[in-house]
Design brief:
By secondary structure, the protein is mostly beta strands. It has a single domain, classed as Porin, CATH 2.40.160. About 10% of the residues lie in helices and about 70% in strands. It is built from one helix and ten strands. It has a ten-stranded antiparallel barrel. A hairpin with a 4-residue loop joins strand 8 and strand 9.
């Protein structure tokens, strides 16, 4: 299936979810996440900090926005790397309540990555300046499950097409509630196209 077909399917899923007749009862879709964000891949490694905002605009639809600043110290084809990456995302999603403890969730976001810094090619004595921008999108479909009173698990399937990279990933998101407003959150999503694992460990504030 080509990228346009996958994008059309994702858009159709969002339309179906946003027009559902029943609202989710057990989950909040207005929150702020913040914490460590990392990438482990065959072609690159990066570590940094990120934040993601979700705003429940209606009973079935949320607006999504995110920002991350990553420091990249490994890249395929370079012997030395010192590059900073600013990643911006914006989009939306819909959700549908299966039971009081299970929601189906779909989302799609536009992705913009801006890289600046220096890198050294093998055999060269000095570093070359690196500057570039990659754009694309990420679509995600997941099941939000209240596994225990304080523990929420979200298995997910994602598709990304950013720059010259595209592929399908599978992941798991876990949230442990500390109190009414604060939770601990962890996420790991693996994409087989570059043996890439996206990581997030941080906190969530429900608003």
């Amino acid at each position: 299936m080509n990228n346009k077909g996958l994008l059309a399917i994702a858009a159709a899923c969002l339309a179906m979810l946003s027009q559902a007749a029943l609202a989710a009862k057990g989950f909040s879709y207005t929150y702020l996440d913040g914490g460590y964000q990392g990438l482990r891949a065959d072609s690159a490694d990066a570590d940094g900090l990120g934040a993601k905002l979700s705003y429940g605009a209606t009973d079935h639809f949320m607006v999504l926005a995110g920002y991350a600043h990553l420091w990249q110290d490994k890249a395929e084809g370079f012997s030395s790397v010192d590059v900073q990456v600013d990643q911006f995302t914006i989009g939306g999603g819909g959700h549908y309540s299966i039971t009081d403890r299970i929601d189906l969730v779909g989302s799609i976001v536009y992705v913009n990555e801006q890289s600046t810094g220096k890198a050294k090619f093998p055999g060269e004595s000095s570093k070359s300046r690196i500057k570039g921008t990659r754009e694309g999108y990420r679509a995600e479909f997941s099941g939000r499950i209240q596994a225990m009173d304080k523990l929420e698990l979200t298995p997910l399937v994602a598709y990304r097409d950013v720059g010259d990279e595209s592929g399908t990933g599978f992941g798991l998101d876990a949230i442990y509630k500390l109190n009414r407003d604060w939770s601990l959150r962890g996420n790991a999503t693996y994409f087989n196209d570059d043996s890439a694992t996206n990581l997030f460990f941080g906190v969530r504030f429900d608003m």
